[in-house]
Specification:
Elements lengths: L1 E2 L1 H22 L2 H7 L1 H26 L16 E2 L10 H25 L4 H28 L13 H22 L2 E2 L4 E2 L2 H33 L2
Antiparallel strand pairs: 1-2, 3-4
Length: 229
């Protein structure tokens, strides 16, 4: 299978944007009240599918030579995709290969909301645990993505769009973890540890991922332009 690098990058960006937007919408109380719990849960689940699709495409991009670092002509030249790879010394690939299973955990947690009997024990086992594991993997992936910038973990590059993308994703991962921790269901009360923090963390995290994904498009154009000079 072959694809042009510019289309692959655009597909990744738009898939992440749609997934993030659905998570953000699902976290708005007015939307949840308007459509009801089942449709709100379905919104999250569909959003998680977009996240997983984007993450898998990003993994394929990371392990397929010729899909990044191209010039104006090369971005429109179809290149073969590599669906298997092992690049443990490549931090960009490590970020992608860590993030992908994280999205699968979100598939499980959002699907479980639709089918699991909402007892505290069942929700913590089938919803909270995969949500927590997915959030951990997102944090690890974001750390690799920041390190892949090559400026050290604390290097600041305010004029670099990849720097902003990496750190917006890191902030989004932190908010997702905050939400995951707050959504633990207390067996004694059957209530979330902190319901407002759970919803707020998901909303803020989704907005960070949405902005980071949107920046992928101008970042690509800037990188291609720089290679033409």
């Amino acid at each position: 299978m072959q694809v042009t690098p510019v289309r692959l990058n655009a597909a990744i960006a738009w898939l992440f944007m749609v997934g993030s937007a659905l998570f953000a919408v699902g976290s708005v109380p007015a939307y949840a009240n308007a459509v009801g719990g089942p449709l709100d849960a379905l919104t999250y689940f569909v959003g998680s599918l977009f996240f997983t699709s984007a993450s898998y495409c990003q993994l394929v991009q990371a392990q397929s030579p010729g899909t990044v670092g191209v010039d104006a002509a090369g971005q429109h030249r179809a290149v073969p995709l590599r669906f298997r790879g092992w690049l443990p010394h490549d931090r960009g690939w490590m970020a992608a290969v860590t993030q992908f299973p994280g999205t699968l955990f979100f598939n499980v947690s959002t699907a479980a909301v639709l089918v699991v009997n909402a007892t505290a024990a069942a929700e913590d086992r089938h919803v909270w645990r995969p949500d927590f594991f997915g959030s951990v993997l997102f944090l690890v992936a974001s750390t690799y993505a920041v390190l892949a910038l090559g400026a050290g973990f604390l290097g600041v590059r305010p004029r670099s769009l990849p720097w902003w993308i990496a750190w917006l994703n890191m902030l989004g991962s932190v908010f997702f973890m905050w939400s995951a921790l707050a959504s633990y269901v207390l067996p004694s009360t059957d209530d979330y540890l902190d319901a407002r923090a759970s919803v707020g963390g998901t909303l803020l995290g989704a907005l960070c991922f949405l902005l980071g994904a949107a920046l992928m498009l101008p970042a690509w154009r800037r990188d291609v332009s720089a290679r033409c000079r």
